[in-house]
Amino acid sequence: MAGARAAAAASAGPSASSGSPPPQEPGLVELLEEFSRTQYRAKDGSGTSGSRVSRFEKRCLELFGRDYCFSVIPNVNGELCSHYPRQIVILEYVSSEKEKDMFQSTVQVSRLQDLINRSKMARCRGRFVCPVILFKGKHICRSATLAGWGELYGRSGYNYLFSGGADDTSAGVEDVTEEDCALRSGDMHLFDKVRGSDIKLLRYLSVRYICDLMVENKKVKFGMNVTSSEKVDKAQRYADFTLLSIPYPGCEFFKEYKDRDYMAEGLIFNWKQDYVDAPLSIPDFLTHSLQIDWSQYQSWDLVQQTQNYLKLLLSIVNSDDDGGLLVHCISGWDRTPLFISLLRLSLWADGLIHTSLKPAEILYLTVAYDWFLFGHMLVDRLSKGEEIFFFCFNFLKHITSEDFSVLKTQRRKSLPARDAGFSVEDICMLRRRDRGSTTSLGSDFSLVMESSPGAVGSFTYEAVELVPGGAQAQAAWRKSHSSSPQSMLWNRSQPLEERLPSYQGLMEAKSSSSSSSNHSDNFFRMGSSPLEVPKPRPLALSDRKTRLQEVRSAFLAAYSSTVGLRAAAPSPSGAIGGLLEQFARGVGLRGTSTSAL
């Protein structure tokens, strides 16, 4: 038992064994306390809570400004989106000390705001396509999925149905197709208008790849289609984009994760549920270098599935072309921030983005910006035990190896070895009410397999669809799939004026003697801070591992002191309470007192 306790203490990170707490970002505890008390809303800007949110926003701008020049689009009262930041950051280029006073934006913010206003109705809950990470001159964006007819023809009714209150009992709504509704309204061009605007915004941001995490083709609620997706757009409006359907379990599945004492190994989603109808669909040219057997995706546990999807996203953003990436699920505030946060942290750990930020600072930035200010409903998720937020940062221990480094040119075929012995999953047991979510549009059930993935029973994989490589093969594939736009390839160049300038274009614009601009005075801009920004440098793999371990340790320390780590009733091992106590003391959260956290 003593060996088990030692293994548990070691799994908490380097700080646990040294007896000193990991470095903390000032304000992280306050951020987590606010996050666990209430959901962020842009319009709630007054009072004590509003002042705290202002501090969070200000700190995010400071951290972005360390390494980037950027513009800010105001969303003060939620005019653009009620659950997006009040100051939406548009990263433009990497900055340096000598450039801090020479910031000359080339983003046409007035045009960008117009595109956003026109396109936001195309997406569920108005959560439009928004750039959040800049890597190799390409934007990594996030959004919700496409809105269905129910939302387009009555946003107020949609919010009434899905507000999370007691009114969720409304049922018996007639199941009507988008086309039927368009006919009744007398406006056959409505979807062309709003989705056309959405496509213009995607092109302006130079997005080429769209990764859809939904396990459904269309989300059905109360008998009607409340959302759609690019992969089932019957008019194939998104055929010029490379569409990837990579179904990933919704937030309700993470209650199983919590109920299994935070053990993701062996936890497998039940793909046989009636509502699960989205196949895994990835263009073949994106899979060659990954050495992953995608036909086995239904047998992967939560660790393997998250690892393989992250590898895929990293390979896309690290490609040589200039195409950006959009990641979305249904509402864009559970699965989407999970992968956006993992992308940001993984690229940072390689020393390729946010190069001046320390572990505690990048942790603050991704918690505040990627999760809190983009509307993740932590209060609701905690009350139901759907701990996808905790999973994200605890999962960092599974991506420390070179397999997840974009600096590595050739990936290993095998997955990283699993941690041996007890880990923090063995000791972090939180007491929450045992019920499902009423506000999420995600899934409801899961299948738990205690055995290793190799021992999982048989599955059928007919839904897996990989696009063949080569022009002739792609043409033949398209011909045979003319009614299914799941995996279309980019085949149309767009006018230069319809896109954000590339990094080279930005440099040329900065050196130009022209000072004319097409900017609105209603937008304020911020350049880099006076702090010197080091040039990006590749880090050794040992540095990557250390950096991610420090982020994870800092998160666990702050999370346990705010949201709280509590020992459950006596566990089967009989040692969980003691291990939890040792962890709390090891990271400096508790002295000799035995009072509850």
TrEMBL record:
Domain Tyrosine specific protein phosphatases: from-to ranges: 307-342
Span list, region Disordered: 1-27, 506-537
Gene3D superfamilies according to UniProt: Protein tyrosine phosphatase superfamily
Example of a GO MF term: phosphatidylinositol-3-phosphate phosphatase activity
UniProt cross-references to SUPFAM superfamilies, sorted A to Z: (Phosphotyrosine protein) phosphatases II
InterPro entries (UniProt xref): MTMR14, MTMR14_PH-GRAM, Prot-tyrosine_phosphatase-like, Tyr_Pase_AS, Tyr_Pase_dom
Compositional bias ranges of the Low complexity kind: 1-19
Listed name of the protein: Myotubularin-related protein 14 isoform X2
